[in-house]
From TrEMBL, chain B:
Protein name, entry field: Phosphonate ABC transporter, inner membrane subunit
Transmembrane segments: 21-40, 78-102, 123-153, 173-191, 211-229, 235-254
GO CC term, one of those recorded: plasma membrane
Chief location category: membrane
Alphabetic keyword roster: Cell membrane, Membrane, Transmembrane, Transmembrane helix, Transport
Domain ABC transmembrane type-1: residue ranges: 72-254
InterPro entries: MetI-like, MetI-like_sf, PhnE/PtxC
Lineage summary: Bacteria, Pseudomonadati, Thermodesulfobacteriota, Desulfovibrionia, Desulfovibrionales
UniProtKB/TrEMBL annotation, chain C:
Superkingdom of the source species: Bacteria
Organism: Oleidesulfovibrio alaskensis (strain ATCC BAA-1058 / DSM 17464 / G20)
Domain ABC transmembrane type-1: 74-257
Protein name in the entry: Phosphonate ABC transporter, inner membrane subunit
Key words of the record: Cell membrane, Membrane, Transmembrane, Transmembrane helix, Transport
Transmembrane stretches, start-end: 20-40, 77-96, 103-120, 126-149, 214-233, 239-257
GO molecular function: ABC-type phosphonate transporter activity
UniProt family annotation: Belongs to the binding-protein-dependent transport system permease family.
Membrane topology: Multi-pass membrane protein
UniProt subcellular location: Cell membrane
Length: 263, 262, 265
């Protein structure tokens, strides 16, 4: 194992604490009503729930891509909601995000896409001249080895398959050397076999870096298989929070409603 | 059960909308021609005159080739300088006019400025600038800079508004500062089209620089206007040939440059 | 693992040389232009003052003059633009067909068509206007012909390109059935390209409105004549009136074109 991907102890208090998070897109109609959650240590948490229940909103509130209406979000003791400007950006560097539709820059090479993870650490001028520090480049190559894409470093992102693109997305997120990984439905655009591979990869990188992972997932069996903890959301509230083994049909009925799909 | 064959609808029904459309067009032409006092006799008389005119133009007279070359060079200079500055300025202005990236207080004035630059023919700008900074190539350069902003700025802003915002979201989530987001997430998606617009406009600037001289803004247009006034039609045809040749060469070069940057 | 051999470069060596050459050429051209162009620095310094002086004289806009001097010319301008565009559609159609290498297989005709298209585009509308004013005398006839000739290049080129991109399937089918060339054109090519043709025509009409507004400066009719008069007599408030009218007409034309685009095409 090279220096770059060696285990690193989580920085003091790399725990994520969400207190009474509320988000209203339209006044009076809250998508997230009252969410409280604590995530810490090396764990994989799967968030399940029907479409429209606010799973994506919750994840995007954490790194403030969406502004919360009320509540507190603390990462390592720092209140994210109170930050702005370069402080907010510094905090975002500590949160790595993987997207459902990969969100890569199609025309750039895989290498450039992975290096995008470091954009929060270098100045715009160096970004324009593509002058990344040598150790960043070395780490990028190591990450590409880890996700199995070393042969594709110079390929354009739009030449890759869906599964390969998501691997690049994961490598990009890990390049940030984050304290926590957020994954917003990372497998929804992928076929079943690739979905399993991606979930395995997520767990592997999280283990190597000893960081928690928060995954939105709509495939319940996938979530149960790969997560240490399941959080079920319904109508903007947390209705289940515990071990995957404890997730019974009654709970699923409450979360998703309707019985037919359970048979 | 009827014995007569089934009545089937006619396969080619007359398109009454199209026919009335064409009729309207013809009626319009007659009406407009009348109000413009264009009658057949005038056209015939004109053809007659045209024949004599074309006769005077051939063969083209290159006797004053030094004057020709000097003015062509000036035309080139105007085109080059105005294109360089025009392209450079259009990049940030186009960016500022993109409604999906920038706030309203920035996009409205930018789009308004671009609209003004675009709505007026370059010759109008040329006249105004000649009044403002005097005769000569400076007026021409300023004219074409504004014309470039009008063209490139609008198309560039539209191109930016069509991009996928997903990479932008990803860079923001990674904590990248706004300029870096532009460089890595926005520009790669639009740079090719920007270069296309820039080369097209450079070409257009060359064409325009050949005529703004007519109102005194430098370049070969002035020589051309003078030749017309002196009825030196053979010199006129020489100048026209040079203009066409110049434009064709620049078009070829532009193709090459685009190939390098693809 | 040695950090040194994990190098990453964005462009290959050949690409870098090519890009460098282009930048170098541009730089040299720019430097040469700066050194040889005859710009008097004093005039440049004085420019902002002159521009503000000009704007002061152009304000307030003399709207009172509109009906007397400008309205008729404005209508004339629109007629010139429309008639010119219609005329060019008639002329550019055959030229565009001749230029499309898949429709017209005679290289001589292709070459001739391309030559016509290039000349039409290379020479500016003002220059064409001067030419036709010398031939047909000042007035709107010269204006209409100017617009028509100038637009042939634009319409013909785009139309030719649309023809070259048409599917050859229906063409093959008709040729196999023994149809004559005209029929093939009407029934195989035309249905495919007619939306593009009308779209191009609309686009060009929009541009022609703008062009028609200035060719009057050299005597080819339209509102340019009013502009020329006002400029020569230094009647700046009337100049600004004309400019406002031109702006309004151009914007209206564009709105009209956008609406038609949305509904019909």
């Amino acid at each position: 194992m090279t220096q770059a991907t060696a285990q690193h102890a989580p920085s003091a208090g790399a725990s994520l604490v969400i207190e009474h998070l509320r988000k209203e897109y339209v006044r009076g109609k809250a998508v997230l009503k009252d969410i409280s959650l604590t995530v810490e240590g090396r764990s994989t948490t799967a968030i399940i729930g029907p479409s429209g229940t606010g799973k994506s909103t919750l994840l995007r509130c954490i790194n403030r891509l969406i502004e919360p209406t009320a509540g507190r979000i603390m990462l390592g003791g720092v209140d994210l909601c109170a930050l702005r400007g370069s402080d907010l950006r510094a905090m975002r560097r500590r949160i790595g995000m993987v997207f459902q539709e990969f969100n890569l820059v199609e025309r750039l090479s895989v290498m450039e896409n992975v290096l995008c993870g470091r954009l929060g650490y270098i100045s715009p001028m160096r970004a324009w001249l593509r002058k990344f520090p040598a150790e960043d480049i070395s780490r990028a190559y190591d990450l590409l080895d880890l996700v199995g894409l070393s042969d594709f470093a110079q390929a354009r992102a739009d030449e890759l398959s869906g599964g390969q693109r998501q691997r690049v997305g994961i490598a990009r997120a890990v390049m940030q050397q984050p304290d926590i990984l957020l994954a917003d439905e990372p497998t929804s655009s992928l076929d079943p076999k690739t979905s399993v591979e991606i979930m395995e990869l997520l767990n592997e990188v999280a283990n190597r870096n000893n960081i928690p992972v928060l995954v939105n997932i709509h495939d319940v069996s996938l979530g149960r298989r790969f997560a240490d903890r399941v959080v079920g959301m319904s109508k903007g509230l947390v209705v289940f929070d515990g071990d995957p083994a404890d997730l019974a049909n009654d709970h699923l009925k409450e979360i998703y409603g309707g019985e037919d799909w359970l048979k | 059960m009827s014995d007569s064959p089934m009545k089937r609808p006619a396969p080619f029904r007359p398109n009454y909308w199209a026919r009335s459309g064409y009729l309207l067009v013809v009626l319009y032409c007659i009406w407009a021609a009348q109000s413009l006092e264009i009658s057949f006799d005038r056209v015939i008389a004109g053809m007659d005159n045209a024949q004599r005119f074309l006769g005077a133009m051939v063969p083209p007279n290159f006797a004053r080739w030094q004057l020709l070359i000097n003015n062509l060079l000036e035309t080139l200079q105007i085109a080059i300088i105005s294109s360089a500055f025009g392209v450079l300025i259009s990049l940030p202005i186009g960016l500022m006019a993109a409604r999906n990236l920038m706030p309203d207080w920035l996009t409205w004035p930018s789009r308004g400025f671009i609209a003004i630059c675009r709505s007026f023919h370059p010759v109008i700008f040329a006249i105004l600038f000649v009044k403002a900074v005097g005769f000569g190539p400076l007026a021409g350069i300023l004219t074409l800079i504004f014309a470039s902003i009008g063209f490139i700025g609008k198309l560039f802003a539209e191109a930016i508004e069509e991009i996928s915002l997903k990479p932008v979201e990803a860079m923001r989530a990674a904590g990248a500062p706004f300029p870096s987001v532009l460089i890595f997430a926005v520009l790669p998606q639009v740079l090719n089209r920007f270069i296309g617009f820039a080369t097209y406009q450079t070409d257009a600037n060359l064409r325009n620089s050949t005529m703004i001289g007519i109102v005194g803004a430098g370049g070969i247009g002035g020589t051309l206007a003078a030749a017309f006034q002196r009825y030196d039609y053979d010199f006129v045809s020489a100048i026209l040939i040079c203009i066409i040749a110049l434009v064709m060469v620049s078009e070829l070069l532009a193709q090459r440059v685009k190939g390098v940057f693809r | 693992m040695n950090v040194a051999d994990r190098e990453w470069v964005r462009f290959t060596r050949a690409e870098r040389y090519a890009r460098f050459t282009v930048f170098l050429c541009v730089g040299v051209l720019l430097a040469w232009s700066f050194r040889t162009v005859q710009v008097i620095p004093e005039f440049l310094m004085d420019a902002p003052h002159q521009v503000s002086d000009l704007f002061q004289r152009m304000w307030p806009v003399d709207f009172g003059f509109y009906y007397e001097g400008v309205h008729a010319s404005l209508v004339e301008t629109l007629h010139i633009a429309t008639l010119g565009t219609l005329l060019t559609l008639v002329l550019a159609l055959p030229v565009g067909v001749m230029a499309a290498r898949n429709v017209c297989r005679a290289p001589a005709l292709n070459w001739l068509a391309t030559f016509i298209l290039v000349s039409s585009r290379s020479v500016n509308s003002l220059v064409w206007a001067m030419l036709f004013v010398a031939m047909f005398g000042p007035g709107t006839l010269a204006g209409v012909i100017t617009i028509a000739v100038r637009s042939i290049g634009f319409v013909g080129k785009l139309f030719g390109e649309a023809l070259e991109e048409a599917h050859s399937g229906p063409v093959e089918a008709m040729r196999a059935a023994g149809a004559p060339w005209v029929s093939i054109f009407l029934k195989a090519y035309w249905p495919q390209v007619s939306p593009a043709f009308w779209s191009i025509a609309l686009f060009r009409w929009d541009i022609n409105v703008r062009e028609s507004s200035v060719i009057g400066l050299v005597g080819a009719g339209g509102i340019g004549v009013a502009l020329d008069t006002a400029l020569n007599l230094f009647q700046w408030t009337r100049v600004s009136l004309v400019l406002v009218c031109i702006f309004a007409v151009v914007v209206l034309a564009e709105v009209l074109v956008t609406q038609i685009r949305k509904r019909i095409i």
